[in-house]
């Protein structure tokens, strides 16, 4: 279980995360929503162990998160791959880096779940569509069986239909694999449909942390309500009856 | 006056990316140009703008990202003046105050370069530049995708309010039928470079005829997915 306890991150004099506490159990999904500059990416950096907290701690089952090597799915699928390497080599990097042996059939099984033809992995990132590239990005994140997978705006580069299809594939694989997913997103529709909990981040603080269905029904804070109403205006959520 | 274009097509590298397409745009119309990535939406948008400008109409275009609209080395005042020159207006004749007020960016420091303004305000500045020539049509290429939901929604609301008081028609280019459903009256649906379906928004949403329209309609909302 991921436990973030009283996490504060300072950059110079500026406090970018202020006393953040949250938990995320294996198999569960937490969506972190909020405007640009709210501290969403800093939170991901701190959980990955790339940004040192000024105070507080981030642990997985009591140990530092760095020990379990959380996986990350990045926002821009094409930029996330080395353009000179085949997709297959990029996908295998976490396996090679951790010096592990891949169980027989794991790559094929994940490819099937993500609707990636295995032959496609011999192409380079520029030779596949952006939706396919993002599915390969997810494949790379899952291949080494990390118990915690972080998604930084995984769907924002995709079109509306592909977004929903990809989100469904992630959810289905999560049921099989049982990883904990922390998803940073702008899209409240996605958060409400696929996450168990929603954390609303504003100016480095958690404004609201609750179940996703409760949030869609009745946000508790004014800022939560503003976000919910904006999602309705943009057609991402339907107005409550 | 109804604007119309007929038989617009486009070829790139020998491949037909837009098959001959005709569109009529009545005054004050709110039209959504929708389709998945690569369906030819932006191509049709550009072809339509070119053709209407050749016919002598004033048509404004707001690109997807404000970065494309503004030069990072020039002040905001320079951009405004440049827009006036391009439109053949005398200095200060465009009603900057009203537009800035309508889009809620009044009081911004025009001596600053674009990077001194927030992204949201930049997009609103680009929209007010586009509206300064009192165009008969304004084409928005996925205006909200570069913004946070809160500011995107507020920008769409401000724009809707402003446009209701004007004769200006609007074309909204987007892959998101959910967004289009909230803001336009009729839809043009493109698939692989062809206009495959058109009609009032409600009709396309409730009784889509083609497979492309059925896909988009089924995926327009996160809560009502067909799975």
What does this structure look like?
Chain A is 35% helix and 25% strand. Chain A is α/β, with parallel strands linked by helices and 241 residues long. Chain A has 2 domains: 2-70 and 147-233, Rossmann fold (3-Layer(aba) Sandwich), CATH 3.40.50; 85-145, no CATH class. In chain A, the strands form 2 sheets. A 6-stranded mixed sheet of chain A has the order 6-7-8-3-9-10, sandwiched between helices. In chain A, strands 2-1-4-5 form a 4-stranded antiparallel sheet, with helices on one face. In chain A, a hairpin with a 2-residue loop joins strand 9 and strand 10 (205-211). The mean pLDDT of chain A is 90. Chain B has 227 residues and is of the alpha/beta class. Chain B has a single domain (3-193, 211-219), classed as 3-Layer(aba) Sandwich (Rossmann fold), CATH 3.40.50. Chain B contains 9 helices and 8 strands. Chain B has helices at 41-54, 66-69, 76-86, 96-102, 119-131, 149-164, 177-183, 201-206, 211-218; strands at 3-12, 15-25, 30-34, 59-62, 137-141, 169-174, 186-191, 194-200. In chain B, the strands form 2 sheets. Chain B has a 6-stranded mixed sheet, with helices on both faces. In chain B, helix 6 (149-164) links the parallel strand 5 and strand 6. The longest helix of chain B has 16 residues, at 149-164.
Question: Could you list some keywords that capture this structure?
Answer:
heterodimer; A: 241 residues; alpha/beta; Rossmann fold; 2 domains; six-stranded mixed beta sheet; four-stranded antiparallel beta sheet; 8 helices; 35% helix; 25% strand; B: 227 residues; two-stranded antiparallel sheet
Please count the helical segments of chain B.
9
Mean pLDDT of chain A: 90
Helix proportion range of chain B: 25-40%
| Main CATH class of chain B | Alpha Beta
What is the CA–CA distance across the termini of chain B?
Answer: 45 Å
CATH topology of the largest domain in chain A: Rossmann fold
Query: What form of chain B results from the Cα inertia axes?
Result: globular
Question: What is the CATH homologous superfamily assignment of chain B?
Answer: P-loop containing nucleotide triphosphate hydrolases
């Amino acid at each position: 279980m991921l436990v973030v306890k009283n996490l504060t991150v300072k950059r110079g004099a500026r406090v970018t995360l202020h006393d953040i506490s949250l938990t995320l159990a294996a198999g569960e999904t937490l969506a972190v929503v909020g405007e640009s500059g709210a501290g969403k990416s800093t939170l991901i950096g701190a959980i990955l162990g790339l940004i040192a907290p000024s105070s507080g701690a981030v642990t997985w089952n009591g140990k530092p998160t760095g020990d379990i090597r959380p996986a990350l799915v990045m926002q821009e699928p094409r930029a996330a791959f080395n353009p000179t390497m085949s997709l297959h080599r990029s996908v295998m990097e976490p396996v090679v880096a951790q010096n592990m042996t891949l169980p027989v059939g794991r790559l094929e099984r994940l490819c099937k779940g993500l609707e990636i033809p295995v032959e496609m992995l011999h192409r380079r990132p520029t030779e596949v569509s952006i939706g396919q590239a993002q599915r390969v990005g997810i494949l790379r994140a899952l291949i080494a069986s990390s118990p915690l997978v972080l998604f930084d705006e995984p769907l924002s580069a995709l079109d509306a239909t592909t977004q929903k299809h990809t989100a469904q594939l992630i959810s289905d694989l999560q049921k099989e694999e049982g990883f904990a997913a922390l998803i940073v997103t702008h899209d409240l529709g996605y958060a409400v449909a696929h996450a168990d909990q929603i954390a609303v981040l504003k100016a480095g603080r958690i404004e609201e942390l609750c179940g996703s269905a409760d949030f869609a029904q009745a946000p508790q804070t004014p800022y939560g309500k503003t976000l919910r109403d904006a999602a309705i205006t943009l057609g991402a959520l339907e107005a409550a009856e | 006056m109804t604007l119309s274009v007929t038989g617009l097509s486009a070829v790139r590298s020998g491949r037909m990316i837009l098959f001959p397409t005709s569109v009529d745009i009545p005054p004050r119309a709110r039209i959504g140009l929708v389709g998945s990535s690569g369906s030819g939406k932006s191509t049709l948008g550009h072809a339509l703008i070119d053709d209407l400008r050749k016919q002598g109409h004033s048509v404004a275009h707001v690109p997807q990202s404000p970065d494309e609209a503004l030069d990072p080395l020039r002040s905001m005042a320079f951009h405004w003046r440049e827009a006036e020159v391009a439109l053949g207006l005398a200095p200060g004749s465009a009603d900057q105050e009203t537009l800035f007020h309508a889009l809620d960016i009044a009081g911004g420091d025009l001596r600053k370069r674009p990077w001194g303004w927030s992204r949201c305000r930049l997009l609103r500045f680009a929209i007010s530049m586009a509206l300064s020539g009192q165009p008969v049509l304004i084409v928005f290429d996925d205006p909200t995708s570069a913004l946070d939901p809160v500011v995107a929604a507020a920008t769409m609301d401000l724009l809707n309010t402003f446009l209701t008081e004007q004769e200006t028609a609007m074309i909204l280019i987007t892959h998101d039928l959910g967004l289009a459903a909230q803001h336009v009256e009729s839809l043009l649906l493109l698939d692989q470079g062809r206009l495959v379906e058109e009609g009032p928004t409600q009709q396309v949403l409730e009784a889509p005829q083609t497979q492309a329209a059925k896909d988009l309609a089924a995926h327009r909302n996160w809560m009502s997915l067909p799975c």
